[in-house]
Amino acid sequence: MRVAGPLEQFEIRQLIPVPAEAGALDLSITNSTLWMGIALGAAVLFLTAATRRLSLVPSATQSLAEMAYEFVFGMTRDAMGEQGRPFFPYVFSLFLFVFLCNFLGLLPTLPGTPDGLHVFTPTSHIIVTFVLAILSVGMVIVVGFAKNGLGFLRLFAPSGVPWWLMPVMVVIEVISFLSRPISLSVRLFANMLAGHIVLKVFAGFVPALLGAGGLVALLAPLPFFGVVGVFLLEALVAFLQAFVFAMLTCIYLNDALHPSH
Amino acid sequence: MPLTRLSAMTDDDHARDKLKALGERIRQEREAAGLEKPAETSTNQAMGEGFRVATELVVSVFVGAGLGFLAGRPFGQQGIGAVLGLMFGFAAGMRAVYRFMMESAAASEAAGKEDATDDERDDD
């Protein structure tokens, strides 16, 4: 019997190849594209179902959607105040997309699923999380310059610093700003990657112990319960990472609205 | 003040009191049934904040070193550039931790004030 290694789950498989000339972008549809599409479809379906028949006493789906809405709305209001209202749709979409990408990737693949269609977590690839982070930080720069003009550069010159320390502080603030997209993307990607590897390693112990036979096989339930525990922890991490990503986007956008600190 | 409005206000106050009492009863029942878990929410938040600070500290050091390496390249001093950048990166990381601490302190102070206002309102 062939057992997949813990890293095979992250392999990108081409599902619909799109021929590209040498040096051009490869726009083939891959399993990553498919699962991002599934996450997007799930978000649209969930919100459509939740808002189809609105009632004063909400149904379970409507209640869940209202909870998600109020949660993200509270986050944007706390971080940015009333001025943050125009950014709510972006933060809400980002939160829902990241959460669904994280969470759907945790579901087990059905036995007999064709190769390439196995469950995949797009956020376990740094390029996906980096693009999302660049989108957020790019928005901060655009909004910052649009709202404050060159005054946005005050972000790099903190107030209350003596003039002789200012050149050092400016360098430190620039490094701090440039590390934002990297820390945003690395945090999400590393958590997803590490969590899925741990899950797979624990799961791999179960057939390995059973296959060993004899008294050792009796130990097989132990890693199985470990998998259940790690799965629950990963479900929490899936939510937490989406929350942290959305919250930091709000905090960074607040810097764009009020650059002096 | 017209008498009708006065009586309406009293009705309103009465309804509000009843609502408050109901809210308190629900909270107590939920607590008794083990459904009220405020501590878990704060643990989740603390975990999220921990992830945030730890990554910012580590990534700032790497970004600083990388930028220092690039800045030293035109002068053929990549090593010195990287070491200097590393120091600045560490300082940037510490600055991020400091900023986070200040934000947390401000948030808990604001929460304390809000609680005090709520208590005053309850006393009224």
Q: How would the global form of chain A be characterised? A: globular
Overall pLDDT confidence of chain A: 89
Give me the secondary-structure category of chain A. mainly alpha
Largest sheet of chain A: 2 strands, antiparallel
Give the rounded overall mean pLDDT of chain B.
Answer: 78
Would you write up a description of this structure?
The complex is a heterodimer of chains A (261) and B (124). With 261 residues, chain A is mainly α. Chain A is built from six helices and two strands. A two-stranded antiparallel ribbon of chain A has the order 1-2. In chain A, helix 2 crosses helix 3, helix 2 packs across helix 6 and helix 3 (88-104) runs antiparallel to helix 6 (221-257). The model of chain A has no long low-confidence stretch (mean pLDDT 89). Chain B has 124 residues and is mainly α. Chain B contains three helices and no strands. Chain B has helices at 3-32, 38-72, 78-123. The longest helix of chain B is centred in the last third of the chain and has 46 residues, at 78-123. Chain B starts with a helix and ends with a helix. In chain B, 17% of the residues are buried. The chains are: A mainly alpha (261), B mainly alpha (124). Chain A binds chain B through residues 168, 171-173, 175-176, 178-179, 182-183, 186-187, 190-191, 236, 239-241, 243-244, 247-248, and chain B through 44, 47-48, 51-52, 55-56, 59-60, 62-64, 67, 85, 88-89, 91-92, 95-96.
